């Protein structure tokens, strides 16, 4: 748009629009579509002139941006998700206030004014169209609402992102409560919004031109354990279809971030299942492998986060995926209404689960933040089948992922349908807590920990109850880990 040409400036100049105490919304969702130059410029500015901001994103950022912003001392408050080791340490030292939030809810809080005004939005785009509306890049995340709600908008036009992204987005913004219209998605491929983010062009205060590709995904290849987890799940789905409890054409799948979820999805490559669809947040390598293999018909997400080779292949051939992909705001990709309507199969990862099916996905030892709940709660609560996968042990066997009582609960026993480890699977649906114990301990726990867990449960039964616990022993495995470095007795 010609009238906006005079707003092109360097990131350093644009960074002066951000002042101490401001609330800033920045694009970026699981390392995709994040602003590339502004975080660097903001970190530089904060090093020269100490200041603090509240930084809200879609989810995690790439390019070590959270590391740079943390080291510059810029972050007073950060939400709703992160995966950065430096930021994680600052959070766990109590230096950065981290608000760990369901990803579908952040913009609802913003709309309701819970964070005060949104002063500045920084949005990566592939273009600004003639009417001044913004064309996002490889993620939508919270970008659309940030741009709509912010007083000022800084747009980073990234020349390294393919312009073919134009037309792939579906931007739907909810109306006002309490008489909001239903979100009219009834099929994963439905388009219900606009292809661009419409804002008054006069709000665009700066335009930065950059040429930096997205960071590649850090997902590790499958190993024997993740392969075993995938095999258990494929066998389970096959069994469910055979018993008529699931249609042969499976419901749409949501798959969380990380190595385990990606490996499980890849497991479908060797499965009999066809015409798969996804209604998820992050589209990882496995999504495109399934599409290329003719196994997946359509994927709806909020971002594309793939390895470098997959990025080259997908981004250079975006046209090929055009009618098979849609990128939506995260409040739509994670919307409880749609998740419930579509009857999603939701697959997320746990750090640990307890013998009754409560899941901790975020707090190591119950205290130290790992990444955040992300969208896992949005999906688990509302899916038709909420699956949590984890390896049965961590840290070389010193930590059991099945414990008597989780010291932090992200997903409670009422939301968790299935727990799966490389050892096996526990289908908790329709079972009372006492019935779940046997399945979880005998099918999912590592053999090295089963006697400990059986012994705990025997003791717990003495105290009775719907969900028996021996409270003085409930955290004995965690306490042993803290004090001796292992959950196993010496
Ligand atoms: N106690 C302590 N540490 C544990 C643990 C436990 N019970 N279980 C796993 N870990 C550690 C692993 O050792 C590993 O540590 P490292 O990075 O030092 O090697 C780390 O946690 C990651 O575990 P990994 O087995 O590699 O799994 P992952 O990459 O799939 O990540 C989660 C697992 C739970 C951390 C990750 O999925 C997550 O953050 N989930 C919450 C958000 C979410 O589900 N989002 C989904 C929608 S986006």
Question: Summed up, what is this model?
Answer:
This protein has 490 residues and is an alpha/beta fold. Coenzyme A binds at residues 256-260, 281-282, 348-349, 351-352, 361-362, 364, 370-371, 373-376, 391, 394-395, 399, 401.
What report would you give on this structure?
With 490 residues, the chain is α/β, with parallel strands linked by helices. 30% of the residues lie in helices and 19% in strands. The chain contains 17 helices and 25 strands. The strands form seven sheets. Strands 1, 2, 3, 4, 5, 6, 7 and 8 form an eight-stranded mixed sheet that branches. Strands 9-15-20-24-25 form a five-stranded mixed sheet. Strands 10-12-14 form a three-stranded parallel sheet, covered by helices on one side. Helix 8 runs parallel beside helix 9 (285-292). It is globular, with a radius of gyration of 23 Å. The chain starts with 10 loop residues before the first helix and ends in a 6-residue tail after the last helix. The model has no long low-confidence stretch (mean pLDDT 96). Coenzyme A binds at residues 256-260, 281-282, 348-349, 351-352, 361-362, 364, 370-371, 373-376, 391, 394-395, 399, 401.
Count of helical regions: 17
Structural class: alpha/beta
Q: Quick one: biggest sheet?
A: 8 strands, mixed
Determine the strand fraction and express it as a percent band: 15-25%
The overall average pLDDT, rounded, is: 96
Bound molecule kinds, no repeats: coenzyme A
Question: Uncertain segments of ≥5 residues (pLDDT<50)?
Answer: none
N-to-C terminal Cα separation, in Å?
70 Å
Q: Any idea what the radius of gyration is? A: 23 Å
- Portion in helices: 25-40%
Got a strand count?
A: 25
Tell me the overall shape: globular
